[in-house]
Structure formats: C-alpha cells, structure tokens
Write the structure tokens for this entry.
Amino acid sequence: MIIIPAIDLRREKVVRLFQGRYDIEKDYHLSPFSVAEQFEKAGAKLIHLVDLDAARTGKPIHRDLILKLAKEVKAEIEVGGGIRTIETISDYLENGVSRVILGTAAHRDPNLVEQALKKFPKRIVIGIDAKEGKVAISGWEEKTGISALELAKRYDCPEVRAIIYTEIERDGTLKGPALEQMGKILKAIKVPVIASGGVSSINDLLLLKKYEQDGLEGVIVGKAIYEKKINLKEAIQQLAN
C-alpha cells in the first residue's frame, strides 16, 4: 500500500477544504512546486493533484501550472478536478501527467469514460466522492441518487487503473478514514482501490494497511501532512517494512 500525498489547488495556492466546503478553506501559503519537491524528497512515487477551481467550473483552470509541475518532478502525477472532455484528458496524458481522475464525468458521461479507457487504458482513475453514501459531483456541491457502491461496480473493468473512494464528511477533518463503506467496495470489485479522507495519524495508515490484501492499493494523505500530524518520509518508510 502506497502513501499518495495530496496538493489541492485554488487560485494557484495550496489549500485544504473542510468536508469539501469551498467556504471553509485553509491557505498554507506554500508554492505547489516546493510542496511537490518536498513530497518527492520524502520518497513519494505518486502525487495526487486536484484543481479545485476546475472541479466547480469544468474548465482546466490550472492546466499550465499542472503541466509545468509534471515536467519538473520525477514522481508520477495524477490529476483530478473538472476533467470532462477527451481533449482535456488527452492534453494532460500527452504532456507529462501519468493518470487522470474522472469524477463528475464518471457519473454524467459514461461514453466519455469509455472513450478515454479505449484511448488510455490503465491511465484513467475513477473518483468516487460520497456524501451520506450517495455520490456527489461538480466539486462535491451536487449530490446524486446513485450509491458509491453502485458506481464502483459500474467501473469494475480491467482498463480502469484504480478507484479513489472519498467520504466527503471526513475529508479535511482528521477524524480517521471511512473503513466500513470502503470495506464493502473492496469486497465488491476487483479494480484496485485508493482510500481518501480523514487520515490523521500513522495509526490510521497502519489500520488501512490491513486492507491491502483485499485490494487497497494506496491512501491519499493531505491535511495530516500539512498540519504535521504525519511525517511523510517516516510514514513511507514504516509502511514499506
């Protein structure tokens, strides 16, 4: 199980939201380039990058910054937020980004996902963000009627690189990961799963590592790193043992 450190971008700044709420934002006054470099030095092999502005607008607001960052760091970059056309997917994947995350598109536009999987097999990640068990889209601001489990089953196919499961109520709260729903998804599908949201300590990471045998491939950690609850280098080394 790998640790995937996260960088959330808003107005070109590194921020964290609380429970996905845009009105509760913390600006860390850090350069995304220096943060990515620190993550790489700590041993991260993959960095999770989210364009929060794009998630709301559906347009790749931070496109130039992201592509520049992808060229400057050796770690692989996965990008999510507002990726809703094959042109945007191609632009990212043909210019240094390792994989893209489709969230809103996975719910609204299955034809786009099918097209992307054909063109870029094993480079498309499905992002499932759930609020009270139901999938939320458009920057987490619109709740749908479909369950997280149902959407995960829909994309349980070999071409999908992974499924990221986020429980929005826990995101940015440091209250611990959502184990129950994640466990149900792991049992139901064969595609590797990445957990996201609520991780607050090395103990949370060790708890999640027990699910590795069930198909948990990685865990995304954001706020706990910025708030110095987790030392990324030490955590990566500890989980490798």
About this structure: The chain has one domain: 2-240. Residues 2-240 form a domain with the TIM Barrel fold (CATH 3.20.20.70). The chain has a mean pLDDT of 92. The longest strand covers residues 2-10.
